[in-house]
Amino acid sequence: MPEHKTGTREEWQAARDELAGLEAEQAELDRKVTEQRRQLPWVPVEKEYEFHTEDGKKTLAELFDGRSQLLAYNIMFGPDYEVGACPGCSNLGDELDATRVHLTHRDVTLICFSRAPIDRLIAYKQRMGWQFPYVSTNGTDFAFDFGLALTPEQAEQMPEVNEILDNPPEWLRDWGRQVGAKLEDGLRENPSFIAFARENGTVYHTYTVAAPDPFVAPYHSFLLRRTPKPPSDEFRAWRKDEYPD
Asked: Which of 48-52, 141-145, 187-191, 216-220 has the lowest mean pLDDT?
């Protein structure tokens, strides 16, 4: 157990006031980043994509469900995953349903993508108790075109991927067993948020952000930053129905 500094209420208040200054600076920087993010150029999506959904095949425009903005999280669940989606991505997925009602009323449709076939996505969605639309990009170039996955050839050309495959840490070996895929296949999926806009009949790609950006993390990780004790250094994530206790 690490030792913690103790002090008087006055000492706490002085330290808290100093921290508040840093938090204000961070908030102002975040405001500037958000403004610059919204100034990114919109790129028209000219290629036709057809996705597998629980309600049959749909185009990218149809995934908007009548709204003008689409925000999607790409869950690591490749066609080679024999057990299920990435546990860390599943943690994030667990927390999406509660916020969908608010996004829906703000002209944003929230969905998730994965490359596994739709029947496996539906089964996993039922297991996790999710309600959000879960869309399969299987059989399309969509994930590769937008950087949500790597082809085997692309992965072979990435030194950082080859380096970790040559000597994977034990937690990553555990992760491979959790998803049921060889690491060379499992690591080709890219956990990402991707955003699109629809205007005057045209769909535009507006933004993508991928792990390890802090935004691509379960919301509970943000809450843990405000708790007095830091979380453990364990890299391994657990699905909500697989915690050891």
From this structure: 216-220
